[in-house]
Amino acid sequence: MDSGGAIVFGDVCVDGHVDGCVYRVVTHVHHDHIVRLDRSAVESRYVLATHITHELLEELGLYVPKRKRIALGYGDRMCVDDVCIKLDYAHHIPGSSQVVIESRSGTYAYSGDFKSVGDKTKPPTGVDILVVDATYGDPAFKRPPEDVIIGELVKLVKTLLTKGPVSIYAYYGKAQEVMLMLREYGVDAPFIASSKHWRIARRLEKFGYVIKDLVLDGSRESHEILRDGWYIKFEHFSKYRCVRNGSPSQSHILLTGWLFHTPIRAVGKNKWIVAFSDHADFEELILYVDLSRPRRLIVDSSRGGVVAKRFAEYVDRVLGIHAEAQP
Ligand SMILES: [Zn+2]
After folding, report:
1. How many CA atoms lie within 13 A of 155 on its CB side?
2. How many whole angstroms from 248 Cα to the centroid of ligand 1?
3. CB 2, CB 18: distance < 8 Å
4. Cα(32) to centroid of ligand 1, in Å?
5. Has this prediction a pTM greater than 0.85?
6. 208 CA to middle of ligand 1, Å?
7. What is 7-139+280-326's CATH superfamily?
8. What's the gap in Å between 31 CA and the centre of ligand 1?
């Protein structure tokens, strides 16, 4: 692991850039996984990602020359000489992948970000070295089951809509997942989305993620809906900090991974935080490593911080797998 956050396997660098990286892989479009992509776009020969990730990179204004883009489907391999790069499905945001590198010297894998281990995210097996992202790798980081959290979130949104408009604050990808989920659970108030959330949702349509009654904030249609006062507005996670008292009938919901042991917490008169995360919690991380059973585990501390070291010690002690945190 490079100190800048790149996972390096020979000529391949994943989610960060190092000098001499020939094949840059992007697991998904979150900002801590597109580190120094501008360098790779210039210096690397190819940039590999899923079709959706390439599409979203373009939408977010992260330029990769078309001739350098290689779009892989899940399970597809790109092989050069005796090295193959394979992307496997990761349940996180649309387009997310795990990376498996097969070479004569061994098989290496990087988890990227993920959740729903076992049924949706299938950990790689037969791996010599596994690099895992362990954002929530502390035993205290446990969330209630996801179906419980979803049930509580839907109930909260439906109740708040009877009192006035609702704003939901979430990262790219997670917002679109929640939009689809709320429709699935019968929430039919119009959605108004900030420009980037709206454009990402539009791009995802061609991959089958179709969100009904989604309107761009600032459009003529959105003005009418705003006047009606019955809607859900989707904003980027970072906008939650800017929420001031405003209208007493307007409710604000922040979707975060940093709430544990309870699905929902009220944090003010009209403000709520909900433990809806796109990351595995501690139990799921352990399950991931246990199902994968690599010969050696490296825990990504450039993204996991001090928790990475604690997680590595736990794995070493409890699962008996040689583990260390890097860099
Ligand atoms: Zn992510």
Report:
1. 9
2. 33
3. yes
4. 7
5. yes
6. 21
7. Ribonuclease Z/Hydroxyacylglutathione hydrolase-like (3.60.15.10)
8. 8
